[in-house]
Design a protein that fits this description.
The complex is a heterodimer. By secondary structure, chain A is an all-beta fold. In chain A, 0% of the residues lie in helices and 50% in strands. In chain A, the strands form 2 sheets. In chain A, strands 2, 4, 5, 6, 9, 10 and 11 form a 7-stranded mixed beta sheet that branches. In chain A, strands 1-3-8-7 form a 4-stranded antiparallel beta sheet, with no helix packed on it. The model of chain A has no long low-confidence stretch (mean pLDDT 94). By secondary structure, chain B is mainly beta. Helix content of chain B is 0%, strand content 57%. The chains are: A mainly beta, B mainly beta. Chains A and B meet through β5 and β10 of A and β4, β5 and β10 of B.
Chain lengths: 112, 111
């Protein structure tokens, strides 16, 4: 069990640029979740996949955000035309169906 | 929808003493309540969880209690150690099977 892996760990970009993050879940886990966490707060749900199907998206997920999980394994989260308010830690978690979620160490995004 | 409140926001205890963190939830349909520990620069790690058909669960120095009637659950850490210093989050799984999180408690263990 190698755990959930997220890349990159840190991303610094200028406002208006596009960024993409990658998440590799625990290999046998069929569910994959994306969360956003700002300083001093708990994680906020963004979206989740069961296998390759994106089953739910939060109202927080504006049309500038898109997530994919093309083969039901790794997932990418893309943010287009980044804004200052997008600065946060983006966390990925995976689980086997409704079993407990296991988190990666996140990608910290800083918008200049 | 579900709302989870967590108290206190900061808790400072002497090494060796016990620490208690409390959470309340609003949706009586919630049936699963995990607790996560988050260290600086890391993702949350599950430390213990409880389902609504159980009132208490213990794992070594950590225990969780659940009062379904009052809609609150608590984390108890006994014999605290320096490595227990971290931010602790409670969560409740709502009727859409999503985790709704508390705002976190920063636990400080004083030597």
């Amino acid at each position: 069990d190698t755990g959930v892996s997220q890349n990159p760990r840190h991303k610094i970009t200028k406002r208006g640029q596009n960024v993409t993050f990658r998440c590799d879940p625990i290999s046998e886990h069929n569910r994959l979740y994306w969360y956003r966490q700002t300083l001093g707060q708990g994680p906020e749900f963004l979206t989740y996949f069961q296998n390759e199907a994106q089953l739910e998206k939060s109202r927080l997920l504006s049309d500038r955000f898109s997530a994919e999980r093309p083969k039901g394994s790794f997932s990418t989260l893309e943010i287009q035309r980044t804004e200052q308010g997008d600065s946060a830690m983006y966390l990925c978690a995976s689980s086997l169906s409704q079993q407990p979620q296991h988190f990666g160490d996140g990608t910290r995004l800083s918008i200049l | 929808g579900e709302n989870v409140e967590q108290h206190p926001s900061t808790l400072s205890v002497q090494e060796g003493d016990s620490a208690v963190i409390k959470c309340t939830y609003s949706d009586s349909a919630s049936n699963y309540f995990p607790w996560y520990k988050q260290e600086l620069g890391k993702g949350p790690q599950l430390i213990i969880d409880i389902r609504s058909n159980v009132g208490e669960k213990k794992d070594q120095r950590i225990a969780v209690t659940l009062n379904k009637t009052a809609k609150h659950f608590s984390l108890h850490i006994t014999e605290t150690q320096p490595e227990d210093s971290a931010v602790y989050f409670c969560a409740a799984r709502d009727s859409n099977y999503q985790l709704i999180w508390g705002a976190g408690t920063k636990l400080i263990i004083k030597p």
